[in-house]
Amino acid sequence: MTRRRAILTDRERELLRDDDAGDQRYVAVSRVRTKIQEELVEDILILQENHPALYEELRDVVCDGAQEAAVTAEEPAEEEPGRGAGEDRFEEPDDADVAADDFQVPGGEGDVELPELDEIGDGVWSVVNEISSGWDDDDRLETRRKAAATALQYALTHDDYFGMSSDAVEAIREKYPVPGQNPETWWKQNVRVVLSEVGDYSRGHGGYAVDSLDEA
Q1: Within a domain: residue 160?
Q2: Are 42 and 184 in contact (CB under 8 A)?
Q3: Which pTM does this prediction carry?
């Protein structure tokens, strides 16, 4: 039976094991990091919402693996300062001190009070207008722009991380549904595309946070 890959392709596995691969190794690291930070989170959400049994199997593998790694890492091998092989293989995010038992994609809690359109700042609209200039100019465009602007304004005024399963994102999707888009497509094409341009992604929190638009 043909083996299927998980996160890593055969070539990525080869490069990550080769400390002398140079630039190719760094390219592989960047590619894998993107898959972990963006694609894996969404895969987890799909399993969690649509096939809890598979989600639990994944959770068991990840959590048990993390616990075993913690035991074997009590006496780590020596590495040269800087970019060590272990560092490239897994980079723990600064803000993510997450225990294995807490493996999940967090969402918001409680009632969500969304900003009205007249409460959305000019800076937010400027960012949304620039990004949405490449979107299809059809009868869904204004709804998509309103959803994106509401999400960005909410992110600016709340100390929250926006992930696909957060209550705020769900509330915005309910207020501004886009015909022909399921929740995953709605998140990717209307909200994530904006937040990823101006926000900071946290793997530990499973979402984006926006402190300001100064660098937008």
Answers
A1: yes
A2: yes
A3: 0.52
